[in-house]
Amino acid sequence: MSKMSSAGLMSLVSCLGAWAVLVPSACFAAAQPVLSLPPFVITGRVTDDRGAGLESAEVRVRKGETLLARGNVGRFEADTSANYALSVPMANTNLATAAVAGDTLTLEIDSAAGTYSDTNLVITAAKPGRTLKLNVQAAQCTNPYGLSDSYLADILAYVDAVGIEGFLDANGNYQPNADFDGDGVSNYLEYLAGTDPFDADDAGLKILSWRAVEGNPDLMEATFLPGPNRAYSAERAAPDAGNAPQFELRPHQLTPEKNGVAKNYLLTGNEDPEVRVIYLYKEGASSLYRLRLE
Ligand SMILES: [Ca+2]
Fold first, then answer.
1. How far apart, in Å, do the first and last CA atoms of the chain sit?
2. Same domain, 15 and 125
3. CA spacing 20 to 30 A to 141: which of 34, 194, 256, 272?
């Protein structure tokens, strides 16, 4: 699970808490005392058929047919990569309006395009107070590549219409691991990043430049070209970790001054792509840095 600041998570929980279905007081008449338990939180990103964060939708959690929690997909003020968060009320005994740890729950997404019943997810309720990070794509994905079916259909039609040779294999199949435009990012990762697999200048997930800030050499300036409605973080690993470096989330700044406001996630909107700049403090004599697409 990605790291998330406790402050960010708390504000998410409180801002969406009003959506949670409260346990009616009548239920407290049950023979077994009902304890007040913290909710089970489900949070993450809901994306569309292009891998972009959905701007509006409703996410619901049901136990059987019973609605336990609902919340809106959108953007939060908190420093989080998530675009939804649900607080599922929890109980220590079987209630119609709350889950017990181990219950089978269903997560459903309802957007302007309808309810994505094909993508309903079955979740096992965790213990009260736990958080499950869950990214969901609200699109049909029945091909073996991990793409949405609509993206695959569009890209096959485009290759056919324009007559692009070499993008598909000899049997006419999509090649997820190939890098057609040679920008160092595979066709599949370009899909996830929302960049153009036919244009090497549109190289999502590549750090384009990396240099010390003039007058403040402890701070490094990194530029990259993000895709639309994506969330990114920066990660660092020590250089001596061999073939399996352990990358860890590192906060970044959006401005180059000393001790500026640090945050963990950079979120883009649906504006035209433009090169973005983030600033990271140098750590140790040398380090490996990378961008992470959330
Ligand atoms: Ca590429």
1. 11
2. yes
3. 272
